[in-house]
Amino acid sequence: PDELVGTSVYDLHHPDDIESLRRSHQTTVARTEVVTINHRVRRKDGMFIWLETTNRSIRDPNNDTVVEIQTASRNITERILGETELRHREEYLAALVEVERTLLTAVNIDSETCRKIVEPFGRVSGASRAYMFGLVEYTDGSWRPGTYAEWTSGGAANRFDGIEAATDPLSEFP
Question: Of 10, 73, 139, 150, which sits most exposed with the smallest number of CB within 10 A?
Fold first, then answer.
């Protein structure tokens, strides 16, 4: 189409894929074997789709110079999305097994055990923080909502240290 005239092919690709695309192109030009790469391309509406592209160089039989590059691409977006979903499910199931193991081997449910329960779910959810809330027993024998455990991703500071009582644990969070 006319709107692509003068546009670099690299301008149409996801920025994270540019370097691997350049290496793929260099390999295609330098060798005679077929090169296959998965990469993202921006559609006209601005959204990215995943393509699997196979390249091979066609060479002049007299001097072995590249005279053309043949390319075939197919849309693999659904496959990539399915693989990503499967990977997330496997991570979630592994977190469930980790929590189950913690619960089965716990001698008592203290703040460290609670942290070991919260951490796998925080990790697989992609959250920066994860909390476990419950009832905390006060010295006067009363029970109030409180924070049992907190998990934070790398670099985030903890807000709680051990089991803390609060009148409303959710009021602590924006």
Answer: 139
**Residue 161 confidence (pLDDT):** 56
Grouping H, G, I as helix, E, B as strand and the rest as coil, residue 124 is: helix
For 110, phi then psi, to 5°, come to -105, -175
Residues 143 and 139: their CA atoms lie apart, in Å, by 9
Rounded to an integer, what distance in angstroms lies between the CA atom of residue 61 and that of residue 16?
36
Phi, psi of 55 (to 5 degrees): -120, 150
Which amino acid does the sequence have at 62? N
Through-space distance between the first and last CA atoms of the chain, rounded to whole angstroms = 49
pLDDT in tens, 59-87: 999 999 999 999 999 999 999 999 999 99
User: How far apart (Å, rounded) are the C-alpha atoms in residues 69 and 93?
Assistant: 45
The two structure tokens encoding residue 35: 């090169």
Task: Give dist(CA 48, CA 56) in Å, integer.
Answer: 24
How far lies 61's CA from each of 21, 65, 161, in Å? Answer: 27, 8, 73
Most confident of 35-44, 95-104, 145-154: 35-44
Calculate the alpha carbon distances from 77 to 3, 7, 20, 123, 128 in Å: 24, 24, 18, 26, 28
